[in-house]
Batch of 2 targets.
Target 1
Amino acid sequence: MSAVSTQNNGQGHAAAGTNGGSQTIKSYAPATGELIGEVPVMSKEQVAQVVSRARKAQRAWAVLPIEERCDRLLRFRDAIVDRAEEIVQLLSKETGKPRHEALIHEVMPIADLLTYYCKNAPRILAPREIELHLFKHRKSYLHYAPRGVIGVISPWNFPFTLPMGDVIAALVTGSAVVVKPSEVTPLIMLKAKEIFDATGLPEDLLGVVTGYGPAGQALIESGIQKLVFTGGVETGRRVAAACGAALIPCVMELGGKAPLIACSDCDLELTAHSIVLGGFANAGQVCVSVERVYAHESVYEPLIRRVKQLVGELKQGDPAKSFVDQGAIIFPKQIEVAEKHIADALGKGAELVCGGKRVAGTGDFFEPTVLANCNHEMTVMKEEIFGPVLGVQKVASDEEAVRLANDSHLGLNAYLFTKDRAKGKRMAEQIEAGSVVVNEVLINHAIAEAPFGGIKQSGFGRIHGEDALREMAETRHVNYDRFAMPGSNPVGYPYTEKSYGLMMKGLRALFSGRGIVQRIGQLF
Ligand code: NDP
C-alpha cells in the first residue's frame, strides 16, 4: 500500500489535518505519496466573505466596456502561456496525470477558450433585436447583463481546465466568480488565482474557497446568482436540490458512460488507436472516456487483438520522473471501484484481454484493463467506472449497436467509427447523447465553439460556444414604441360590449385559416 493510502485511510489522497487549531486539507501526490501542500477548510462565514469581496470587485468590473474586459483577460491568457511549465508540473503532480495530458487537455484548451471568447464576446453579447411577428408598432431587443457572482464547483479529474472554462465565461460577461475546487486537488486552482492576481486583474474578482462538501454547500447558500457544477450524478442531485432551495439557476455537468460503436466498415487501425486513447487517457478518469465498445462481429476479433497490442505498448509510471503514457489513479477508492466492476464482469462470463490488477509498489497505479465478451448484465457496460477499464461487446448490426448505446441512464458523449460519413451522421443523430463524435475521440470538449453538456442523468445546461456564454449572462428584454401612439389604448379600458365584439372579430381576422397573422410577413 502506498504512503498516500496509509495517511488517508483509503479515503482519498487529500487528508485532514490541523494548522494552528484550524482544520486543513493536505494534498498528496498520488504517484508518490509525497505531501505537496495544505489548504484551509473554510467555514461558512469565510466562504461568505470571499463571495462578498467578489461582489464588491464585480461592480467596477461590470461597468468596463466588454472590449476592455477582454483585453485584460488576454493578458491573463499570456501569463498562463508564459507559466505553462509551472502549471503543468503542479497539475501532473497533484493529479498523477502525464505531463502531455496536463498540457494538451488542460492548459491548451484554456488558452484557446480565452482567445476565442475574448475575440468573439463583443459580438456574441451585443444586444440582439427580436423580429416581432404581431406587434409591428413596437420593437424588442435582448441585452446581456452581468449576473453578479457566479459559483463554480468542480471535480478533481481536470482541476484546471474545468473550473477555468467557467471562470473565463463568467468574467467575460462582467460577473465575478468564486470557485470551490475538489478537496482532492485544491492546489492547482490556487495557482491559477496566483497567476490571475499577478497580471493585475482585480484581486477579489476571482475567489477560491477550499474545503469539503460543506464549503460547496456554503457557496450555494452565499447569495451567488448562478452555479456551474461539475461532478458525479449523486452529488449533482443534492447540489441541484440546494440550488432549487436557493432559487438560483444552475448548470449540471455530471457523469458519463460514453459508448464507442465500431461499424463493420470502420478503419481498424484508427478505431483501435482511438479506443486506447479514449479509454485510457487520464487513466480513464474522464467524463467522456470510452467506457464501452460495441464492435460489429466482422471486426470484433481483429479489433480486440490490435487494442491488446497497443495497450501492451503503454508506459506507466510517475509522470514527474519520465514521460509516461499512463500516470497514477487519483486515490485508492477509484481502484476499488475498478476492481469491483472487473470482478462482476469476470463472474458473469467476460474474458480478461489485458490488465485487471493494481500495480505493486509506491503510488496508486492500476493496469489499463480491457474486457471482452461483455453484455448488459454486467455493471462494466452500465455504470460509470471512471477508471482505466473498458468492456467490449460483439454486435450483429448497426441497429443493435445504437440500441445498446442508448440503453443507459447517462448521455454525455458517444463515438462511432465508420468510413461512410453519411451513415456516420445518420447514426449519430439516433444516439442519445449531448455530443456524438464520428471517427475521433475526446475532441469535442476542446472545441470552443461547440456546446458541451449532457442529456438524461448526465445533466443539463451547456458550457462553451455562443449560447452558453449568453446563458452565463442574464438575458434581459427591452420593448419600446416605434412611433408615437394615441393616448388611449384600443385594447385597454374601458371594457365594453362593443370593444369585446371588435376583439372577437379581430381574433377571427387575425388567426382563422390563412388569417392576417400568417400573411403578416408579406404585409409589412
Ligand atoms: P463529486 O460529485 O464527488 O464532487 C464534485 C464537487 O462537488 C467537489 O468539489 C466536491 O467537493 C463537491 N461537493 C461534494 N458534496 C457537495 C455538496 N453537498 N454541496 C456542494 N458541493 C459538494 O465528483 P468527483 O470530484 O468525484 O468527480 C468525478 C465525477 O465528475 C464523475 O462522475 C465524472 O463523470 C464527473 N465529471 C463530469 C464532467 C462533465 O463535464 N460532465 C467532467 C468531469 C467530471 P469535495 O471534493 O470536497 O467533496
Note: The pocket of NDP is lined by residues 153-157, 162, 180, 182-184, 212-213, 216-217, 230-232, 235, 238-239, 253-256, 287, 384, 386, 412, 454, 459 (CB under 6 Å).
Target 2
Amino acid sequence: MPPPCRIAPSILSADFAALAEAIDRVAPVADLLHVDVMDGHFVPNLTIGPPVVAAIDRHTPLTLDCHLMMTNPGEFLEPFRAAGADWISVHVEVDDTADLLAEMVRLGVKAGLAINPETPFEALEPWLGSLDHVLVMTVHPGFGGQAFMAEVVPKIRAVAAAIDQGGYRAFVEVDGGIDAETIDAVAEAGATCFVAGNAVFGQADPAGAVRQLRAAADAACRGRT
Ligand code: DX5
Ligand code: ZN
C-alpha cells in the first residue's frame, strides 16, 4: 500500500488581502496548508512571519506546513512553533542542520529538510533517518508561478529510494511548478506530498483544482505499485 497522497495548497499564490476566504475555499479538500516564509536573504523576496502564521492558525484547523527560506531559521523555530506551525522545513543549504533538527524535535514539530534544485542528493543523505519529510524544490525558491524543473526528477527518485531502502519514516514532498501536467512525473518518482500555489489559488475553482491534483497523484501512485 503506498502512503496516501497529500495536497498542500501554498498560500503564496492566494490574495493576501482575502486570505481567510482563500483558506476557506480549499479547507474541505486540502490536507495541509503550505506557508512560504522568505527572509530577503536566503531568497530575493520577503513574505510573512509568525504574526501572520498565528492569525492563520486562529482561523483554520488545517495543519500548517511552514517552509522557512531563511539564512537564520534557528532564531525563528520557537516563534513559528508558538504561532502554530505543525510542520517546519529548513533548508539543508544553511548550516547547523543537526542543531536545527534537534530543536524541531524539542519543539514537537514535524521536522523537514528542504533542498534546492542545484543541491545534490548527497547533502541530504546523512539526515534522511532523522526526518519526517523531505521538501524537494522543483523551482529555485523565491516566487510562485515558476516553471517546473524536470531535471530534479532523478533526485526525487534517489531520495525516495534511499528512504525506502533505509526503512525510514520520512516521505517526499515536492514544491514548485506542480500542476495537473507535472504531478504525474513527481508522483511516479516517489513523491507523496504535493505543494501547489498557482495551480490552486491561481485558478477560478481552487477546491476543484485540489481535487484534480489529487486524482492525478493517486493515479500516478497506483501506477508505481
Ligand atoms: C517557492 C515556494 C513555493 C511556491 C510554489 O519558493 O517555496 O511553495 O509557493 O508555487 P507554485 O506552485 O506556483 O510554483
Ligand atoms: Zn514552499
Note: The first strand starts at residue 6 and ends at 9.
